[in-house]
Amino acid sequence: MDSSDHPELELEYVACNLCGSTEYIVRFPDTLTASLDGGEWRAFRCTHPGYGVHPPIVACQQCGYVYTNPRVKVETIRENYQMVEDPLYLQERLAREVTFRHHLRHLERYTGPAAGRRLLDVGAYIGVFVEVAAEAGWDAWGVEPSAWGVKVAEERGLNMVRGTLEEADLPDESFDILTMWDVIEHLTDPADGLAEAFRILKPGGWIAAHTMDIDSLFSRLMGARWPWLMEMHIHYFSRRTLGEMLEKAGFEVARIKPEGRYLNIGYLTTRLHSYSPPIAGAVEAVARLTGLDRLPVPVNFGDLVTAYAQKPAD
User: Fold this and answer.
1) For residues 110 and 206, is the Cβ–Cβ distance under 8 A?
2) Among 10, 138, 161, 199, which is most exposed with the fewest C-beta within 10 angstroms?
3) Which pLDDT score, from 0 to 100, does residue 10 have?
């Protein structure tokens, strides 16, 4: 990727976040330089439609870990997440609530019920999961860099800390549960993020990390058309590399399994446009005519997984 095509971008080369090697092969060539949104904070919205637009995506020659390289400098990425606003996400709230209730039910199979214990959601955005967890009896908190996201959450009376997990500087062993829903792939340094999570969790505490699986069957079938190849995603885990990184941080992995989500039909059709505009248009028209465009429907192609891991008890 040539930064002269985007003079506002300052790029940096990084080592593999899993093993530290600087040797890699390009797995998916750069498509970002042709994007008008390249380097703008809009590309860091959760609902941004820029599928297939990304910097070079490489695979470590030593351990196979997949990540973007070169990438926008850390300072720029952090500024983007501080500035991001995402009104479309508000329209998707119902589907997000259904998804997070589903996630919480699965999480509690490992952690047990709330009983007033403390839970921290990292990258909480507008606090939907924080609210769902609080309603279930957890002493739920969120940490989020977006000023807009924190403001929306606080207006609903939620416990929020603005900033990254590292910036929050939370006390040692101060939470029972920590969650990262669609977050770890955005972190500039996932290994450090997991180490920080390990530090603030109590002995016996649990972490749930939900992300894409680049080695899934659907990903391999789609190739360069896999929808999660996007500018906002910095790291691409497989079940193996996600498990290895959790173990490297000190966690004991209980299970890594596919978990889908719920999407409104209307929102889903906006994602179909990049693949087949005629089909997307037809589905969208039928959904609007029938009033089903706001109906949450389950979506699971097996390419989204959740890892459940525990900090060893003393």
Assistant:
1) yes
2) 10
3) 78
Give the per-residue pLDDT at 5. Answer: 42
Nearby residues of 143 by Cβ (< 8 Å), 6 or more positions away: 120, 121, 122, 123, 124, 160, 161, 162, 163, 164, 165, 168
- Claim: this prediction has a pTM higher than 0.85: yes
Give 215: exposed, middle or buried? Use CB within 10 Å, 0-12, 13-18, 19+.
Answer: middle
- Calculate mean pLDDT across residues 201-215: 98
Q: For residues 44 and 84, give the distance between their C-alpha atoms in angstroms, rounded to a whole number.
A: 7
Looking at residue 120, its amino acid is L
Please count the CA atoms within 13 angstroms of the CA of 286 that sit on its side-chain side. Answer: 7
Distances (CA, A) of 111 to 108, 128, 137, 216: 5, 20, 13, 27
Q: 3-state secondary structure string, 193-247? A: HHHHHHHHEEEEEEEEEEEECCCCHHHHHHHHHCCCCCCCCCEECCHHHHHHHHH
Cα gap 257→10, rounded to integer Å: 37
Q: What is the pLDDT of residues 225-267, one digit of tens each?
A: 898 999 899 999 999 999 999 999 999 999 999 998 877 666 6
- The answer to whether the CB of 118 falls within 8 A of the CB of 176 is yes
What pLDDT score was predicted for residue 148? 96
DSSP 170: P
Identify whether the C-beta of residue 89 lies closer than 8 Å to the C-beta of residue 26. Answer: no
Q: Is 72 helix (H, G, I), strand (E, B) or coil?
A: strand
Q: Which residues contact 3 (CB under 8 A, 6 or more apart)?
A: 9, 10, 11
H/E stretch holding 256? strand 252-258
Q: What are phi and psi of 217, to 5 degrees?
A: -60, -40
